[in-house]
Specification:
45% of the residues lie in helices and 13% in strands. The chain contains 11 helices and 8 strands. Strands 6-3-4-5-8-7 form a 6-stranded mixed β-sheet, with helices on one face. It has a two-stranded antiparallel sheet with strand order 1-2. α1 packs across α3. The two termini are 24 Å apart.
Length: 307
């Protein structure tokens, strides 16, 4: 009896923490999403038993949210439409990027919660490259984006492509990028990883990424990889042109590195900014990393609503 009471308290706390985190982003959850993001193995019935008998959790149209937060249901429905439109734009860009032979995978990676992009937000690409080709890949990706005028600027980010995170295929354990390398601390990063939406994949590379990040199942034991929206590189004509591009430019990785380091904004060369990583295996160019701010906000918010 005592064990069951303690278990129910733990489940209740875990559910509140999860709903509270997504509430920060005005994102109500379905019961299936609550299950996906919980850090314990649990059934739908156990979750419903808690949320349907708690006055602080409300529901509307299948979405669950905290009391007095009914308005965020409309926000989520609106953002679904925005996200769907941005996904179409991203896939159009991928049709060009697939000619670059050094790209192994592209995923959309700036949404906390699937389909949670705001109307004015940009589209954040996470790109995995061939080993020792990270600089030449960024050179072409950024160059193409600039030519097409789809790189975000401070005055206009809507529907632009943000190219700020690349890793080489030999550097796939993303746990290294966590704050203090602990999912209990860096909740934001675990949710970011869980919500990566792969839109381009060469030879099932997304599966390889998951295999190198099995820690995600310790964070979310009910989570399953997102397998939809993936475009595979299997067209012979694309492989033909990719081979030509590789022959012509494949050996220019070091030269492109020197060029980019020379023209890179000084703010990205700030060695005191630990959020920025620049080396031959990783290009993580996030100037304003708000993870600690979000984590602190979540902790304070949760303490307030649970009291």
């Amino acid at each position: 009896m005592e064990y069951m009471e303690e278990k129910n308290k733990y489940i209740k706390k875990a559910i509140f923490k999860t709903i509270a985190f997504f509430d920060i982003f005005d994102y109500p959850l379905t019961v299936f999403e609550i299950k996906k993001y919980l850090n314990i193995k649990i059934s739908i019935l156990e979750i419903l038993n808690v949320i349907n008998n708690n006055k602080k959790i409300k529901s509307l149209n299948g979405f669950y949210f905290l009391d007095n937060r009914k308005k965020i249901v409309k926000n989520r429905l609106d953002r679904y439409n925005y996200s769907n439109q941005k996904l179409k734009i991203a896939k159009q860009i991928v049709k060009i990027y697939q000619f670059l032979p050094w790209i192994k995978m592209i995923a959309i990676g700036n949404s906390i919660g699937s389909n949670n992009l705001k109307n004015k937000s940009d589209i954040d690409f996470f790109i995995i490259t061939q080993k020792n080709k990270i600089w030449i890949t960024r050179f072409f990706c950024a160059g193409i984006a600039k030519f097409l005028k789809i790189r975000p600027i401070e005055q206009n980010k809507k529907d632009k492509i943000c190219l700020s995170f690349y890793v080489g295929e030999n550097n796939l354990d993303l746990q290294q990028f966590m704050i203090k390398k602990s999912w209990k601390i860096d909740k934001y990063f675990t949710y970011w990883f869980a919500n990566l939406v792969p839109i381009y994949d060469v030879n099932n590379f997304y599966k390889k990424l998951i295999k190198n990040n099995l820690w995600i199942f310790n964070c979310f034991p009910n989570w399953k990889p997102i397998m939809s929206n993936i475009k595979y590189n299997n067209k012979k004509i694309i492989l033909f042109y990719s081979s030509i591009i590789n022959i012509l430019f494949g050996k220019l990785n070091n030269i492109s590195k020197k060029i980019q380091l020379k023209i890179m904004p000084k703010i990205l060369n700030n060695k005191n900014n630990k959020n920025i990583i620049i080396n031959n295996n990783t290009l993580k160019l996030h100037i304003n990393d708000k993870r600690l701010e979000v984590i602190e906000k979540h902790n304070q918010y949760f303490s307030k609503i649970i009291s």
